[in-house]
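Exercise: predict the fold of this chain.
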Amino acid sequence: MFIIIFLIGLLLFVGQIAGWKIIADPPENLGFYSHSVLNKLFGKKFLKFFNILLGTLLMILAVWGYVSIGN
């Protein structure tokens, strides 16, 4: 389970840094996709901050959980 959380965080972080369109600048007409809604409501700068912050927090949470709960 921790590996999945870590990979999702890594995907968000790397996707934002690399500029993957679906993560860094999703089309605003995809109402079912949360990143599209965030991009539409708050803009690209907020989405960049959100992706990097969430990706980092998920990776830290996964490593912390793996170390503290079980190997």
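Check your answer against the key: Residues 2-69 form one domain.
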